[in-house]
Amino acid sequence: MILESDLVKALHLHTLIPSENGELPIEVSNVNRPGLQLAGYWDFFGYERPQLLGMVEMTYLSMLDAGTRRERLTKFFSYDLPCIIIARDIPCFDEMLILAAARKIPIYSSKRQTTQVEIDLINFLANALAPRETRHGVLVDVYGSGLLITGESGVGKSETALELVKRGHRLVADDVVDIRRVSDDRLVGESPELVRHFMEIRGVGIIDIATMYGVSAVLPSKSIDLEVKLELWKQGKEYDRLGLTDEYGEILGVKVPYILIPIHPGRNLAIVLEVAARNFRLKQMGYNAAQELARRHMERARAAREEEEAK
């Protein structure tokens, strides 16, 4: 369900026929332009989508005789349409208003171009209907990459994020991260409105990052590009030292690059995470330092073997 007030506010709509209960039964992030339906072809009609009418559809209806237009509109409104949006501020036909009121189908009007309304509507629905999940962790923007810092309570996630903020990076969420899957391979995280820009530092208490470090130190939301799990160093456990193979976690069905960083006294985690962010960006650009080092070793070994065989 979508709140009518959210849709009207986001798309700057004018309400012609309001929703009966303030909600719209929209469950998909697609939009339908019913040109073929108004022309009489009803197969594969995406009636469950918001219906967007622009200059083409409204001009076609105006060219029909009164009887045909009434017949087509009666058929159109016989479906359970979630809502209708008329672009370009085109006047609505009286028949549409009467039929919509009878069927309790909301109608809205927009001053914007039809294509712009469609783009804005799809983006709004994609965000509003995106699958969601809440995770315990900290989300920080480091060199343009969104780092989701996870780990057991008390491991030092907030302190690490605070040091990153001091070094010029930006906080998105502390302790609680609301995550949305906005596409098949993209996650966006944000902080709940109630605790946005606040951080808890044990022994100090609650601090306001935006007030203390300025608005440039915070972001309202950020894509999640890399998950960094902090773990207290465990004696005898083997940790990855080369990084030859990439590891992935999964959040809301999306594969997310994952690294595990062991913690022990003397490690500057803020610098380590800066390096992790830079290394991640290099890998995205096609350069892997571990693979490059392995390639050089292989070339050195091959050259030594060839030299030995030549003797």
TrEMBL record:
Where is each HPr(Ser) kinase/phosphorylase N-terminal domain found? 6-125
Specify the enzyme's EC class, one word. transferase
The chemistry this enzyme catalyses reads:
[HPr protein]-L-serine + ATP = [HPr protein]-O-phospho-L-serine + ADP + H(+); [HPr protein]-O-phospho-L-serine + phosphate + H(+) = [HPr protein]-L-serine + diphosphate
Q: Which residues form the HPr kinase/phosphorylase C-terminal domain?
A: 128-296
Sorted alphabetically, which Pfam families does this protein's record hold?
Answer: Hpr_kinase_C, Hpr_kinase_N
| Residues that, per the record, bind Mg(2+) | S158, E200
Keywords assigned by UniProt, alphabetized: ATP-binding, Carbohydrate metabolism, Kinase, Magnesium, Metal-binding, Multifunctional enzyme, Nucleotide-binding, Serine/threonine-protein kinase, Transferase
> GO terms for molecular function, please?
ATP binding; magnesium ion binding; phosphorelay sensor kinase activity; protein serine/threonine kinase activity; protein serine/threonine/tyrosine kinase activity
Q: Give the E.C. number(s).
A: 2.7.11.-, 2.7.4.-
**What cofactor(s) does the depicted protein rely on?**
Mg(2+)
Q: Kindly state a single biological-process term from the GO annotations of this entry.
A: regulation of carbohydrate metabolic process
What does the domain comment read? The Walker A ATP-binding motif also binds Pi and PPi.
What's the further remark here? Answer: Both phosphorylation and phosphorolysis are carried out by the same active site and suggest a common mechanism for both reactions.
Q: What does this protein do?
A: Catalyzes the ATP- as well as the pyrophosphate-dependent phosphorylation of a specific serine residue in HPr, a phosphocarrier protein of the phosphoenolpyruvate-dependent sugar phosphotransferase system (PTS). HprK/P also catalyzes the pyrophosphate-producing, inorganic phosphate-dependent dephosphorylation (phosphorolysis) of seryl-phosphorylated HPr (P-Ser-HPr).
Quaternary structure?
Answer: Homohexamer.
* Family note: Belongs to the HPrK/P family.
**Entry-linked HAMAP family:** HPr_kinase
Name this polypeptide is given: HPr kinase/phosphorylase
Organism for this UniProt entry: Candidatus Pullichristensenella excrementigallinarum
Q: By which gene is this protein encoded?
A: hprK
